[in-house]
Amino acid sequence: MSGAPAAAEPPALQAALAGLFAPWVQALGLRVEQAGDAEVTLRLPASDQLAREGGTLCGQAMMAAADTAMVLALMRQFGEFRPCTTVQMNTSFLRPLTGQDALVHARVLRAGRSLAFGEIDIAGARDGKSVCRASVTYALL
Q1: What is the spatial distance between Cα 2 and Cα 134, in angstroms, rounded to a whole number?
Q2: pLDDT digit string (tens) for 87-141?
Q3: Which of 6, 51, 62, 84 has the least C-beta neighbours within 10 A?
Q4: Is 75 exposed, middle or buried, given 0-12, 13-18 or 19+ CB atoms closer than 10 A?
Q5: Rounded to whole angstroms, how far apart are CA atoms 95 and 80?
Q6: Own/partner pairs for 47-50, CB < 8 Å, 24+ apart?
Q7: With contact defined as beta carbons under 8 Å apart, do 123 and 114 qualify?
Q8: What is the 3-state secondary structure (H, E, C) of 34-50?
Q9: 74 near 35, Cβ under 8 Å?
Q10: Among 34, 37, 33, which residue's Cα sits nearest to residue 5?
Q11: Pairing status of strand 115-124 against strand 102-111
Q12: Which fold is adopted by the domain 6-140?
């Protein structure tokens, strides 16, 4: 783990999930698994509330988890929360995820004064197979 300020350490990131995000995002049950330099891995627990027919994790939940993870990765980048808004998110769903938690790994590629760019990979927690990839652009406010 890097020497990030306390505001960007895993306990503070977990607290940010409860303090910065809307109740419906909190209902995803995301948990901080790891935090590195300008990157974060969250666990998205398997849940009937997030599953489509047949138990497959829905794409809307994956996109919300990806967007949330990137905000926390930006906290790692800057050492604190900076207001931002999603400008663009390009998401590709590679395969269904059924019967296991998802690991959501977000990494900041570049952060400037007004824009930040990142990428997210979502994989099965048990099998490690990638199920979703996203690239994002954020406006830093």
Answers
A1: 25
A2: 999 999 999 999 999 999 999 999 999 999 999 999 999 999 999 999 999 999 9
A3: 6
A4: buried
A5: 34
A6: none
A7: no
A8: EEECCEEEEEECCCHHH
A9: no
A10: 37
A11: antiparallel
A12: Thiol Ester Dehydrase; Chain A (3.10.129)
Res 63: pLDDT: 98
Give the integer Cα–Cα distance in Å for 59 and 50.
9
Question: What is the strand order of the sheet 84-93 is part of?
Answer: 31-36, 39-44, 102-111, 115-124, 130-140, 84-93
Instruction: Quote the tokens at residue 49.
Output: 């509330």
Coil, helix or strand at residue 29: coil
Residue-range domain boundaries for the chain:
6-140
Name the token pair of 115: 């824009």
Q: How many CA atoms lie within 13 A of 78 on its CB side?
A: 19
Q: Which residues pair with 84 in a beta bridge?
A: 140
What 3-state DSSP class applies to 96? coil
Confidence class of residue 26 from pLDDT cuts 50, 70 and 90? very high
| C-alpha span between 65 and 101 (Å, rounded) | 12
Single pTM value for the model: 0.94
